[in-house]
Amino acid sequence: SLRPPESPPQPPPPPQKAGLSPETLEKAKAELKENPDTLHQDIQEVRDMIITRPDIGFLRTDDAFILRFLRARKFNHFEAFRLLAQYFEYRQQNLDMFKNLKATDPGIKQALKDGFPGVLSNLDRYGRKILVLFAANWDQSRYTFVDILRAILLSLESMIEDPELQVNGFILTIDWSNFTFKQASKLTPSMLRLAIEGLQDSFPARFGGIHFVNQPWYIHALYTVIRPFLKDKTRKRIFMHGNNLNSLHLLIHPEILPSELGGMMPPYDMGTWARAL
């Protein structure tokens, strides 16, 4: 053999440990109870639970994939598994939504072109990715709310590949300026529930904050309808700023925000993320 007999084969490195910067690794240890030394056991414990749900097709069970769910649930094996199961169950129950989940799908393509979602180039001071939605841009004659949700899920799938974002998470900012009552009437409770199930209950991402800006009274009314479906943790992270951009800027520095949100960056170019994707 080519290898001298005295050097045994090296064990494989733990998954994606190299993928985190030293600061983020520290954060993962402190905030998520991540332990590089037991990563393999943690992942295997979750994988071993898969046999308890024969009713669900687990289409991916590789280390890197399971690790996302552990990070999203602070390394609680049971909660991570529950999220993994819900991830595939949601996809199983909503097959049509995931049929052609690509940037080239006509509905998704139109939604992306109108900035659903927009993704800012700069991270916030906690390393989080900022998604911006300008609600009034929704052209209901060209694509549905489900297309917007699909475009958001496709975008998150692409971004969550980055281990740094698995640890640091996302911020969602929705600007409701000029969003009409007619547009709002298309947001039925069942549609909104579908979105909450897809984002809150079935996706391995940490959402650090959801910011509503310039919301009209009818958006408040819709919020009261969906509030029962939100976890306490989610409710605590929803901020209703109205037209007070100063309260938004206390949480997200204006240096990285586009001018529409009172920031110092130029107006957001809707096509940026569509092109990147």
UniProtKB/TrEMBL annotation:
<protein>
    <recommendedName>
        <fullName>Clavesin-2</fullName>
    </recommendedName>
</protein>
<keyword id="KW-0472">Membrane</keyword>
<dbReference type="InterPro" id="IPR036273">
    <property type="entry name" value="CRAL/TRIO_N_dom_sf"/>
</dbReference>
<dbReference type="Pfam" id="PF03765">
    <property type="entry name" value="CRAL_TRIO_N"/>
</dbReference>
<feature type="compositionally biased region" description="Pro residues">
    <location>
        <begin position="1"/>
        <end position="16"/>
    </location>
</feature>
<dbReference type="InterPro" id="IPR011074">
    <property type="entry name" value="CRAL/TRIO_N_dom"/>
</dbReference>
<feature type="region of interest" description="Disordered">
    <location>
        <begin position="1"/>
        <end position="22"/>
    </location>
</feature>
<dbReference type="GO" id="GO:0007040">
    <property type="term" value="P:lysosome organization"/>
</dbReference>
<keyword id="KW-0333">Golgi apparatus</keyword>
<dbReference type="GO" id="GO:0030136">
    <property type="term" value="C:clathrin-coated vesicle"/>
</dbReference>
<dbReference type="GO" id="GO:1902936">
    <property type="term" value="F:phosphatidylinositol bisphosphate binding"/>
</dbReference>
<dbReference type="GO" id="GO:0005802">
    <property type="term" value="C:trans-Golgi network"/>
</dbReference>
<keyword id="KW-0968">Cytoplasmic vesicle</keyword>
<keyword id="KW-0446">Lipid-binding</keyword>
<dbReference type="GO" id="GO:0031901">
    <property type="term" value="C:early endosome membrane"/>
</dbReference>
<dbReference type="InterPro" id="IPR001251">
    <property type="entry name" value="CRAL-TRIO_dom"/>
</dbReference>
<comment type="function">
    <text>Required for normal morphology of late endosomes and/or lysosomes in neurons. Binds phosphatidylinositol 3,5-bisphosphate (PtdIns(3,5)P2).</text>
</comment>
<dbReference type="Pfam" id="PF00650">
    <property type="entry name" value="CRAL_TRIO"/>
</dbReference>
<keyword id="KW-0967">Endosome</keyword>
<dbReference type="InterPro" id="IPR036865">
    <property type="entry name" value="CRAL-TRIO_dom_sf"/>
</dbReference>
<feature type="domain" description="CRAL-TRIO">
    <location>
        <begin position="108"/>
        <end position="269"/>
    </location>
</feature>
